[in-house]
Amino acid sequence: MPKSTVVDYFAGNENLLDDSAKRSPNITQSRFRLLHTALTVTDPGRVLSIGMGSGIAEEKLRDEYGINIVKGVEPSEGFAALARKRGFEVEVAGAQEVDYEPDAYDTIVYNGSSFGFLNDDELKDTWRRNYEALSAHGKLVFTDVPKESALGAVLYLTQRYPEIKDDDFQDLLEGTTFYRTGRDEYKPYWHLTEWYVDLLRSLGFREFRFFQTVLANPPYQEQAVEDPIEGYKKGNYIAVVALK
User: Fold this and answer.
1) Which InterPro entries does the entry link to (predicted)?
2) Considering only CA atoms, which of 77, 240, 114, 82 is closest in space to residue 188?
3) How does strand 47-50 pair with strand 105-110?
4) Which of 30, 42, 184, 188 is spaced 20 to 30 A from 160 at the CA atom?
């Protein structure tokens, strides 16, 4: 298989996700509950995880809930190696590079804003091919730190305007998973949630469900574990479920 041409944003930083999960256990658990709720709107069935990272969430889904992740896609060699150690089949590639077989999956999931590493043209083409790869009643799920959330706004603006000094906003990020992380570790492409929903609707997805969690403002997010609630207009982490 040809080597992926997609940029590995996390080369040499393969412990980032595992370290973050240990540092922020309450946020991690809240996000996992969000993901599990979204995946189980319908029977997960055959699941493809795109942007699998190191496989932390997938391992928990498998070991605690018996959800079968049949394959992962991950452009970072370091993350993919860790996911393989957790027992997963992983293709090292970007989502836009994969040859998707028709009717191959019941659920395709982009966890942790992984779709935000595709530019608009790549995303539209990739989600179109994802639609074709889903079974007749399959679903696409994505989780995100939305641009319009308190956390998303801080991340987006500080990434967009590098003249903002770290010391001017790190107090806002203390108590989040992004405290003292590099701005190049954020996703590079941002849109409002409804932009993504409109795109998915234009590709043929017919029904949507929304869930959200971590409702506290950024400095206070690690203080408690939260169960997800319906909607997407309040949470700093959201899940969108698009049904075929």
Assistant:
1) Methyltransf_25, SAM-dependent_MTases_sf
2) 114
3) parallel
4) 30
